Amino acid sequence: MSVPTELGYTAKHEWVAVEDGIATVGITSFAAESLGDIVFVELPEVGSEVTAGEPSGEVESTKSVSDIYSPVSGEVVEVNESLEDAPETINTAPFEGGWLFRARLAEEPSGLLSAEEYTKLTEGEE
């Protein structure tokens, strides 16, 4: 399982990268593998507000439907429209082309796990 060290993580298996006040959000490879083949993704609307720890969309796989919890609070400024036609990108490249949305931060994210902490968390769930 890949866990890039430059990202922050949540216990609900989302990742976040912050650059110049904009957070890019996705789900981890652990989550993607656990879900199985992703067939549909519902993303927040551009211009909508997301709140850290609250649902911001859904991922539907052949196994289940799961909420996406935003790791940050702010305004959605971009969504990954390519996922409409190719949601399986989340399975094949969760940290690259499989990102979900970008949000302008209302505040700095807090309570995120480091790559090491996230790895320890997932070792108990495998």
What report would you give on this structure?
- The protein has helices at residues 29-35, 82-85, 89-92, 115-123, and strands spanning 8-9, 14-19, 22-27, 38-42, 49-50, 55-61, 65-69, 74-79, 101-105.
- With 126 residues, it is an alpha+beta fold.
- It has a single domain, classed as OB fold (Dihydrolipoamide Acetyltransferase, E2P), CATH 2.40.50.
- Strand 1 and strand 2 form a beta hairpin.
- It is globular and about 35 Å long.
How many strands appear in the DSSP assignment? 9
| Assigned CATH superfamily | RNA polymerase II/Efflux pump adaptor protein, barrel-sandwich hybrid domain
Which stretches are poorly predicted, pLDDT < 50 over at least 5 residues? none
Principal-axis shape equals globular
CATH topology: OB fold (Dihydrolipoamide Acetyltransferase, E2P)
CATH architecture: Beta Barrel
What's the average pLDDT? Answer: 95
Number of helices: 4
Distance between the termini: 11 Å
**Main sheet characteristics:** 6 strands, antiparallel
Helix content: 10-25%
**Sequence of strands across the biggest β-sheet:** 1-2-3-9-8-5
Output the radius of gyration: 13 Å
| SS-derived structural category | alpha+beta
Q: What's the helix-strand series?
A: EEEHEEEEEHHEH
**Portion in strands:** 25-35%
What is the highest CATH level, the class? Mainly Beta
Number of domains: 1
